[in-house]
Amino acid sequence: MKRTIIAISAALSIGLAIPAQAELLEADWQNEGDGNAVLDTSTNLEWLDLGLTDNMSYNTTVSLLDGALADWRLPTFNEVQTLFYSFFPSYTDSDLNGYEDTSGGTLLSNATLFYSLFNTSGADAWTYGLVDDGGVMKMSGIYYSGSAARIFNTTAPAGAADASNAQYSTYLVRNSVNAPDPEEPVTPEEPQEPETPVTEPADVPAPLSIAGLALGIAAWRYRRQA
């Protein structure tokens, strides 16, 4: 399936502050170019757009994992938190109310990016999903109006798992099938032994035999005695 890259330079040109540790790509799910998934290359996980589970309760979504949503699975709470903080690294719940409001700066820019990637319809300002944290339903995401946003990362209201409305979606994830192909490893060449130059031997006189050497010494002594 084809990937559509959300170019970092293009995002910066419209004022979006992209967290340095995350590289986020718009990906496809069922058809080439549908853009119905988001790939986080820092974790190699692919997330289904939250807009595709609008108006379905958490429990209804779970029942479809053996059918229409068989490509996906429920994420762990930690996986959702990793995704959330890759978008909103500066998020703080200073009032302990489960959300943070913003009307500008980096946090709003990151909310704009989250909305553009995860909201498929563009009509619903609510873009957040539910996740089960050990039997407790949690919700993470945003309410976005364009000029302001409320970032949620908190416990969901009682009965959220059975609620079916446009405010509730469900996080679904899978290991990426759209991940960029890894570069082929470069195998280092084996070191080559240096070639030993071949030197032609110089012409040298043949060595004297022992007998010839003895005769030469005897003749020299004779001449000295004469």
Structural commentary:
With 226 residues, the protein is of the alpha+beta class. It has one domain. 23% of the residues lie in helices and 21% in strands. The protein has helices spanning 8-13, 58-63, 77-87, 105-118, 210-225; strands at 3-4, 24-27, 37-40, 45-48, 99-102, 126-133, 136-144, 149-155, 169-170, 173-175. The chain has a five-stranded antiparallel β-sheet, with no helix packed on it. A five-stranded mixed β-sheet has the order 5-8-7-6-9, covered by helices on one side. Strand 7 (136-144) and strand 8 form a beta hairpin. The protein is globular, with a radius of gyration of 37 Å.
Gross morphology is globular
- Give average pLDDT, whole number: 77
Radius of gyration: 37 Å
Helix content: 10-25%
- Beta fraction of the residues? 15-25%
Low-confidence spans: pLDDT under 50, at least 5 residues? 1-21, 204-224
Question: Which structural class do you get from the secondary structure elements?
Answer: alpha+beta
How many distinct domains? Answer: 1
End-to-end CA span: 110 Å
Q: How many alpha or pi helices?
A: 5
Task: Please list the strands of the largest sheet in the order they lie side by side.
Answer: 1-2-3-4-10
Largest sheet: 5 strands, antiparallel
Count the beta strands.
Answer: 10
Along the chain, the helix and strand elements come as EHEEEHHEHEEEEEH
